[in-house]
């Protein structure tokens, strides 16, 4: 891949769907131009998963500085707000930030600002965890409903929790969003534009590679702590391999379901990135 022109000390943002090659590009930029690689992937923050979330290897992390990878316990509550509070000091550090990942919400909070919404009380979150998606959607105000993907449980639940906890809709809070920490115009903002079939083949190969590298061992280590309600345990491939370990699925069925789930996730990512990041510079693997 031909590297884009990057000005000295210019921050770099790299987004794209899973398995598209984002981490490899971040490493190449860091090797050539210097910088610290900062994680912007919600699954890779947890210390229980390296292989199954495709976190950089120990050797890669040792080759150039990496931050916010595997630093959160599996049962810790973590949000875009937590990520922003941790990433802000890194933007003023001595090294160029190279922020890479597939969690679009992290990039949105960074480049468009984040509303000062109070922390949700645990009892409200516990109530929401027991509610259906339809129940929560019905309780939202019309403006919020019109802005959300009502099939996305995490987004709908977040909106319901905010509205219930504060008495104000999330749309109302978002209207008070402060200026962003970074402007994309001041960054090398790169978005992977990949062919669907090319990506699908990479997803299949990568999951097989994860299995060869010990993904099942990671899952076995976490079996007694596995809780499907925890965000860390929703990482793609984890529920499927847990089901295999518990005798609920055959190995082939678990592998097939995990790769299908990954393809579906990548499709949602591609659609979201194309609608939200039209001003970013598209990069194409192999070009």
TrEMBL record:
Coiled coil (residue ranges): none
Enzyme's top EC category: transferase
GO MF annotation list: tRNA dimethylallyltransferase activity
Cofactor(s) needed for function: Mg(2+)
Catalytic activity: adenosine(37) in tRNA + dimethylallyl diphosphate = N(6)-dimethylallyladenosine(37) in tRNA + diphosphate
Pfam short name (any one): IPPT
Entry-linked InterPro entries: Dimethylallyltransferase, IPT, P-loop_NTPase
SUPFAM superfamilies given in the database record: P-loop containing nucleoside triphosphate hydrolases
EC number: 2.5.1.75
Residue(s) at site: Interaction with substrate tRNA: 103, 125
Keywords: ATP-binding, Magnesium, Nucleotide-binding, Transferase, tRNA processing
Binding residues annotated for ATP, in chain numbering: 16-23
HAMAP family the UniProt entry points to: IPP_trans
Function: Catalyzes the transfer of a dimethylallyl group onto the adenine at position 37 in tRNAs that read codons beginning with uridine, leading to the formation of N6-(dimethylallyl)adenosine (i(6)A).
Quaternary state and interactors: Monomer.
Family of this protein: Belongs to the IPP transferase family.
UniProt-recorded name of the protein: tRNA dimethylallyltransferase
Organism per entry: Aliisedimentitalea scapharcae
Phylogenetic placement of the source organism: Bacteria, Pseudomonadati, Pseudomonadota, Alphaproteobacteria, Rhodobacterales
């Amino acid at each position: 891949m031909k590297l884009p022109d990057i000005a000295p000390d210019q921050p770099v943002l790299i987004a794209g769907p899973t398995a598209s090659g984002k981490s490899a590009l971040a490493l190449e930029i860091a090797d050539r131009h210097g910088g610290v690689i900062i994680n912007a992937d919600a699954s890779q923050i947890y210390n229980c998963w390296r292989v199954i979330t495709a976190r950089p290897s120990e050797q890669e992390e040792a080759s150039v500085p990496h931050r916010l990878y595997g630093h959160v316990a599996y049962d810790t509550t973590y949000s875009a707000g937590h990520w922003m509070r941790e990433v802000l000091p890194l933007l003023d550090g001595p090294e160029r930030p190279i922020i890479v990942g597939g969690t679009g919400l992290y990039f949105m909070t960074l480049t468009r600002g984040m509303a000062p919404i109070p922390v949700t009380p645990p009892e409200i979150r516990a109530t929401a965890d027991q509610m259906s998606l339809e129940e929560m959607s019905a309780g939202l105000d019309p403006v919020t409903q019109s802005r959300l993907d009502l099939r996305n449980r995490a987004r709908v639940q977040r909106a319901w929790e905010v509205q219930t906890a504060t008495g104000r809709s999330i749309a109302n809070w978002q209207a008070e969003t402060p200026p962003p920490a970074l402007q994309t115009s001041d960054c090398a903002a790169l978005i992977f534009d990949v062919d669907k079939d090319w990506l699908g083949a990479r997803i299949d190969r990568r999951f097989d590679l994860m299995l060869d590298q010990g993904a099942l061992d990671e899952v076995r280590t976490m079996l007694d702590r596995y809780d499907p309600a925890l965000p860390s345990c929703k990482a793609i491939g984890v529920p499927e391999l847990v089901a295999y370990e518990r005798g609920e699925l055959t190995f082939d069925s678990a592998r097939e379901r995990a790769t299908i789930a990954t393809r579906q996730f990548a499709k949602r990512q591609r659609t979201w990135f194309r609608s939200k990041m039209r001003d970013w510079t598209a990069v194409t693997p192999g070009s």
